[in-house]
Amino acid sequence: MTPVPAPQLIALDWWALGAVIALSAGAMLLLLLEFVPAKPGSSRAAVLSLLTLAISAAAVFVARDARRSIFDGMFVHDGFTVFFTLLFCAIGAVSVLLSWDYVRRTGIHHAEYYVLLLCATLGMIVMAASNDLITIFVGLELMSLGLYVLVGFRRAHLESNEAALKYFLLGAFASGFLLYGIALLYGATGTTSLTRMAAFLSESPLRGNPMFVAGGLLLLTGFAFKVAAVPFHMWTPDAYDGAPTSVTAFMSAGAKAAGFAALLRVGLTALGGMPAEWGPILSAIAILTMTVGNVTALLQTNLKRMLAYSSIAHAGYILVALVAGGRDGASAALFYLAVYSFMNLGAFGIVTMLGRGREERVLVSDLAGLGFRQPLVGLAMTVFMISLGGIPPTAGFMGKVYVFKVALGAGLVPLVIIGVLNSVVSVFYYLRVTVALYMQEPQGEPTEVSWAAPAVVALLVTLALTLWWGIQAHDLLLEAQRSVMGLL
Amino acid sequence: MLWLIPALPLAAVLLNLLVGGRLGRKGVGWLACGAVGLAFLVALRAVLRLAALPEAQRTVTDTVYTWMRVGDFSADVSFLLDPLSAVMALVVTGVGFLIHVYSTGYMAHDASYRRFFLYLNLFMFAMLTLVMADNFLLMFVGWEGVGLCSYLLIGFWYTRPSAAEAGKKAFIVNRIGDVGFILGMLILFAWGGSLNYARLFAVAPHVFAVGSTVITTATLLLFLGATGKSAQLPLYTWLPDAMEGPTPVSALIHAATMVTAGVYMVARTHVLFQLAPVSLQTVAWIGAATAVFAASIGLAQNDIKRVLAYSTVSQLGYMFMACGVGAFTAGIFHLMTHAFFKALLFLGAGSVIHALSDEQDLRRMGGLAPRLPWTHATMLVATLAIAGIPPFAGFFSKDEILSSAFASGNTAVWILGLAGVVMTAFYMFRLYILAFRGQPRLSHEAEHHLHESPPSMIVPLAVLAALSVLGGLVGPPMQEGGHAFARWLAPVFAGGEHAAAAHHAVPMAVEWGLIALSVVVALAGIGLAFRVYLQDPGAATRLRERLSGLHRTLLHKYWVDELYDATAVRFVHGTARSFWRFWDTKVVDGAVNGVGYVFEGFSAVLRLFQTGFVGTYALFFTLGVAALFLHLLRH
Amino acid sequence: MIPISWSLALSAVLFVIGVIGVLVRRNALVIFMSIELMLNAANLAFVAFSRDMQSLDGQVFVFFVMTVAAAEVAVGLAIIVNMFRLRETVFVDEINLLKG
Amino acid sequence: MIAPALFAVFAAIAVVSALSVILQRNPVTSALFLVVTFCSLAGIYLVLHAEFIGMVQVIVYAGAIMVLFLFVIMYLNLGRDIETGLQIALRRGVGWLMGFALLAAGVALFRHPWAAGPPAPPGPPVGNTQAIGLLLYSRYLFPFEVTSMLLLVAMVGVVVIARGRRAPGPAADLPPGAATGAEPRGDA
User: Which pLDDT score is estimated for C41?
Assistant: First the structure.
């Protein structure tokens, strides 16, 4: 029995763990505060959530240059962690702002909503910040459980419940595969720690060892489910469609980023870049994901479903970066994820604002003529659509340029060509939204917009970032590269 | 200070967005025109400074900032002023300014006045970015930007279903072209390692062997992009439909500037095209074919703007023809003169339409000359210019293209070009006669409201008319060492202009012969038009009946009449119509729609998989896992 | 000493039985039970490896999996109960409002 | 010699009862067979010298989780599943086929030579509860703490989703019937 030393934390570690501590504490505080009745319609929970997320981000930001491996690598604090923690906090904050009014008007204004949102964010951070498969698994489950409940939060609502059931059953099913994959990897390498796995592999590369390869593949399957890659994507449209729209916004950005974060960390740290066997597999998945996502989106009339398929397609573009592999590929993926998160949050954010009171308007045709009646909504939606379609001068364009550039550098010309064709196809359905906004007259009752200050703030922030990163992408790119370089 | 040129219209856009509501109509108009006018002045100053530099150093770049830098790859927002982009910048800002001024009058009564100038300024920004970019990526930004603005402006009167439909068509066709552009760009980057013009062109001769598959593919793909933007076969159909937009838009975007972007791109990348003879041949043939084809369709159109639209397609064909035979200077020269006279034609047509309370059908015009004296005079100048009558601007540039084609040995291309000249002269004078001469065929209401346009519209017409007369004088033929315009562009096309060398290989006498021939051909077209449309068109039929029993010497005349009845009237009209009806509306539209249907079909099939049942989803998940394992087993 | 291949084989068989259960059953509760079966198969593999390598990490992992499974079961059953309340059914092939 | 025999017996029981779980029409029977599977797995854990896990398996899985399952089945008062009809037969066929395909792929894959992890250090088998406890509170402290949040989420989640039919306070959600009508669906 080798004695294991008790973990020793230095002061810096507390800063590094700040996000985790703050989010846990914030979630519990929110629950405890339920004992103190608030005024009806109080924004206490939302404000506290924002505060918690701000503190989390600040703590990690303070320690952004530190490189620490805490609890024997169960929690690592490196550039990668900092990047994703800040991203998740931002996603969480924007989601809180979008939820602020939405949860009230749809009748799900409970403190638990924010508790779950904070916990899911915590799960994402844990997924991105760990060098051990155990912690990654626990983080993933923490995120997933939170999301299952959030998706089904409108519990008297048939669609919401149906979405939760589908997401839950398939999510648990996928977890089974993921877990079996981890078991096989553990069997092949004797450890669940990514760094030790890397050390073991450098001594005895397990090329062709069925246990190792199969384990890796099953692991990939599990993460592919979370990022909604074809053919593990089928839950996505239904879950996104049925969930409360603010939750859809949150999960479409956060869960995908978290899935990719874990995949990247496992790939880069443990497997020393993506293993060679994965190349063709990832390529095939990337091609399928882009194509199926974009083509299926073409005929969608429901905005949420359309954006769901679009989010599948975007996972495909990010997979192209992963196929390219190496640090360049990883930094392209990080860059794209950040860009994607905000433009997608913005697009879903607008959907949260459509309709008054309990009424929700989610059809593309509901946008008819809205561009003139509500110029801000029209302008913002147009920018998000242009960006999602990868048209300059928006962030989405820069994301695609960088991903394709990296892929070309890795000699993946066919993959890039398919990617380009796909992004051209995608413009057609993004454009339909713009056409509806500016070139159609509403049939029947025109859509009202529920204006609320927090949602407008969220909209402006996402809009500004989408434009800013389209014009000045360099800083974010440097940040993404630095994050990948500092991988512990 | 180069960045100021595109930045000025952009600033106007932002100001319009922010405070446009408080400025009122007049303020918005002043803002829009002022920004573009100022941009013109800045561009002029920059070009004068450029001209002061020694010839070899006439390249100024202005890097605003770095967009992204990854290792050896860098994308800069960086502007380039060399003789080529100088010409483009001056044309775009100059003609753009005039059209802005004209629009203040033309759109005066439109409810969406502010939105119109917003789009128009945004277009100027994008177009200037396109022509002044110093790398492909930034050019692509402008390329997409002008496409977006074009789309917005075609659908400007979106309540008309035809306008929305036309916008959609333009968009789809342009996206097909864009695929080519993007893929071409990717290939250039993958092999050439850079998207910066200077760097790429410097390494190109070392990286790409002459005639190699890579460079041929890349240039053909780029050319596909150009055919989309510049409305060449087979991607031209969107342009005639684009006439749904307001007329100043047709003048600015769909005649003078945006549609020439493809020509500019080919000229800009001439270094690459010259490495790919097959691509150059393709460019020449597509250009020549489009020139004739579109002209023939133009013969039978009755909508004044559609005639001009097909004429634009045809003239763009000439520019590509020039590039294809290696005479890039001639192509850019024609681009410039065309910008003057075609903008003038559209603005004149707009003035007519404006005067007739939105009547666009040539059959309901006629006899307008005395009623609209200014419009008539300027239109006549433009018509003479496009027909290629000396000393109007179009003559010089078109003649240079034709003699370059002849000199390059592409006789077939040259003959096609000549055929285009006669048709151009014919249909343009048909338009002129039907609109301005003969008996008025106006509706009562149009007659009642008939008025000459306000000065804000007439002044730009007059300026453009002056340019259409004088613009060609910068490039008279047969100058020792090339004419002034060629000398100006020489630093850009230096070493590449093999046609220029060939040009002088043609003896002086042949040169004169060619000039005479093209003028005679143009005059023949004009004469035919007067004959058919002004002197009673029924004459042909009656003459034939009367002559049937006459002297054998008259048979020859009969034969001529019959010929012209069969060819010029029935045959040409018939062919043009069937071309338009069948090819245009069935084949090309069908193909465009077909692509859409195929994808929608796929989409419908894929949606079937999304059954909504958890069982199905789990099954596909498992199938995915099984497929992955099968893949493993194969290794 | 049990050969590792025995345990692995058993674990694989149990895992596949679980997968089949998910694919063939229409009762959400039974599907869920099948998923539990898959998790247990993975647990068995962990324990077997742990035994084989004389390392406790695998067993600790199983401990975590059990905790996670317990949490998952609670949430999953809540969702299923809620579904039954809303629609009076637990059959997954009777719920497809969301599709296409 | 006794260990392999025990393993074989437990394995046989586990496989048979697992098959019964997915073959039985009555969910209660399925659940009970699942308990049997879990218990035989616990036996196998004991054979593999994982005493702690074996005990936890019985207490947590067989004891807590399955009781929850049974409770829900009883609460919902479910009868036998009706599993007839072409569609269900088809699905069953495809499902079994997929399962066997997966198994066959696994078998084929593992016929290659393979090594399970680093060679075991010599010594007595490890696996006592004390050692696991030490590990949990040292090396695995962080995931252990995160798990506590996981349990918190589960508790909150269950309360949110399954609390009484009566919706709380002014923020009442719509009744089920009205909810479907109120929301226009594009893909109808």
Answer: 95
